[in-house]
Amino acid sequence: MNTYYTSWKGGIQIMFHMTPWMTAEQHRRLIGNDICVLVYFDDPTGKHSFQPDVIHNLGTVPQVFATVTPTSTEPGQYRVGFFNRPNMKQYPPLPPPMDYSMDFLTTREYLFAKLYNGMHTSNHCPPLNRLFQVPRAAAIEELGRRYPPKPRRELENSVKEVGPWLSVDIMNGKDIRSSRSSGLCNPYVTITFDNKDQKTPVQRKTNSPSWDATVKFPTRSSRVEDLEPLIIKCWEWDRFATDELIGTAKVSVAQLQTASWVELKNAQGVVNGEIYIKIAIEAN
What we know:
Helices cover 19% and strands 34% of the residues. It has 284 residues and is an alpha+beta fold. The strands form four sheets. A four-stranded mixed sheet has the order 3-4-5-6, with helices on one face. A four-stranded antiparallel sheet has the order 10-7-14-13, with no helix packed on it. The chain has a four-stranded antiparallel sheet with strand order 9-8-11-12, with no helix packed on it.
């Protein structure tokens, strides 16, 4: 085995290519196609150091580099360093001072956040940006060929025939809990109706958010009995990782004509909070 797998933030899959276990061919083929390279030193004395010149042997794909060294004076503490190719833009978090050390868990969280952000930043910097921008331009050109101006005008005309509007008031929440943190969270709500999505702003560091937000959807009937149910989801916003789904509810529009508390349940059926919602049908 020359790879090691782990996960971070509840859903981000991370694969390490372990160079000490690789043949020369595997080293060239695998490490040469990795965007992020992590160098670990077993020797805490500082007698061995990383020479950046060797990155030229890896080709043009690797962009972000990190070094980790255990300290010689404090067992269980580590120092980290970062550098990247000059074409890269700045990305968070800021690097710590050279003489600053961290425990294992802090080092792990810091490294993953820095490398994860560096990987995404590299996609928008030369030379890797061409891998994303050129295919995207080709896809847009293909869409233009598939959907010429006449079908688009017909679609715009059909929108004018939409009937009443469904107005959804997302007022506030209580006991909102995220599995990523034992304390406060950063919740927001998405509402799905008739395959259309709307969302509220994020409320920071709270378990009792007050969104006071209204979203509207076009409908083709003023009878609530004819309308599809609402799919309500509450999410935990995260700056450095994929947002986590806190809980979901599926409720009929008729049920929400009177302002009601709606329970949010996770995949295991556990209630992770409630939100206060009301709907109304508005004339076009």
